[in-house]
Amino acid sequence: xSRPLFQLDPRLRLCADFVRPGARMADIGTDHAHxxxxxxxQGRIRSAVAxxxxxxxxxxxxxxxxxxxxxxxxxxxxxxxxxxxxxEAEDIVIAGMGGELIxxxxxxxxWVRQEERRLILQPMTCAPELRDYLRQNGxxxxxxxxxxxxxxxxxxxxVCWRPGQPRTGELYPYIGMLRPETAAARTYIxxxxxxxxxxxxxxxxxxxxxxxxxxxxxxxxxxxxxxxDLR
Length: 231
Ligand SMILES: C[S@@+](CC[C@H](N)C(=O)[O-])C[C@H]1O[C@@H](n2cnc3c(N)ncnc32)[C@H](O)[C@@H]1O
Description:
Bound molecules: S-adenosylmethionine
Order of helices and strands: HEHEHEEHEHEEHHH
Oligomer: single chain
Distance between the termini: 48 Å
Helix content: 25-40%
Strand order of the largest sheet: 3-2-1-4-5-7-6
Number of helices: 8
CATH architecture of the largest domain: 3-Layer(aba) Sandwich
CATH class of the largest domain: Alpha Beta
Radius of gyration: 19 Å
Strand content: 15-25%
């Protein structure tokens, strides 16, 4: 008998909610394969490839496929998208990695540049670098939400290739499409502002022009947050 299904933490749950119903999906950097197992067991996807660059996580993924008796998930050793076929991956989740690694994985697979494909990206670090990469390479962020999980706040982006309308604006790399409409988004924006302030203050002597720019962006971000919500 298969086990009762586990709950996803709010971060992975938001990634799951961005996957289109009935999609063939690939989870890159799957670790325990929690995301594809949960999606299959909820009847939300047609199939999944649970991929990881390391054999240790894949062994745990295999165990979970057996434990939860999945039928439409295959496990694959793959550096990024190298061993994934385009037809297996209408929706691609890359979650829980640094933003620069996510950008590198996307640049290694030119076939992700198709308007009908969806990318669900959740950087742990370097989100501004990832957003810069996306806007410079013809990717549009269709939707972005922040989520708080285990004392941290994360951003999840739904992305597709849509060249010709690059997002600009000084705030875009730092908060993307997030607006201060939820408590999690306000926390995210405030944390970005605080981080820029620290960087700006640290650069005052070495690069005063860049320091002024960072402090100006930090001010603009802080002004987005209603005073009563400032922590
Ligand atoms: C912190 S875990 C994230 C697991 C899950 N995606 C999540 O968000 O909770 C990162 C996983 O990405 C894998 N990984 C790192 N670099 C990778 C690459 N280039 N290609 C595929 N997987 C990679 C690691 O082996 C690890 O299992």
